[in-house]
Design brief:
Alpha-Beta Plaits, alpha+beta, three-stranded antiparallel sheet, six-stranded mixed sheet, elongated
Length: 189
Amino acid sequence: MAENIPPILLGDPGGPAAAPFPIGPISIGDDDLMQVLGDFIRLILADIQVIRGQDNRVPEPLANRFVKMTPSARRFLSTTTHEEDGPNGRIYVARSTACDVQLDFFGAESANDAQVFGTLFRDAYGCEAMDGTGVQPLHCDDGRQMPLVNGEKQYQDRWMIQASLQITPSVSTPGQFADSVTATIAEVD
């Protein structure tokens, strides 16, 4: 094993181990994606409450009208790209990714709310509204009515849409760069 190559595993494989070199945080994470999508929904649907799905011990809102956002899938859209930042000694590795989010629209206006969302999300309006955030709309399905029986055995109005957004998160890794070179001439016989 060469001396300058770090080992694959440090410490006990079953216990915590430090990375052999510092990896930077992801540039755009799940919370960022959900914040941008939630802001878009609040922009186009006045007075609607937006919540994140799959939170334990959190009851549904008392509001008559709300949207629940639940991340459901990720698909890679490209191979990785590398961008070198020599002065800072970092390499940024990125991969374009499609992120699917299930949107459940609740309330008497849920069909209309789903229609408004689907129309504006698929339009240039959605792209412009999310411009500069690192998140862009890809596509969404047409939505469907999904009846829900609540704890009181009452039907609740619910429309569900699967929305797909694109992000290109990057992770920084240390790189080896040279900022100067010393050349010497060697005679060849």
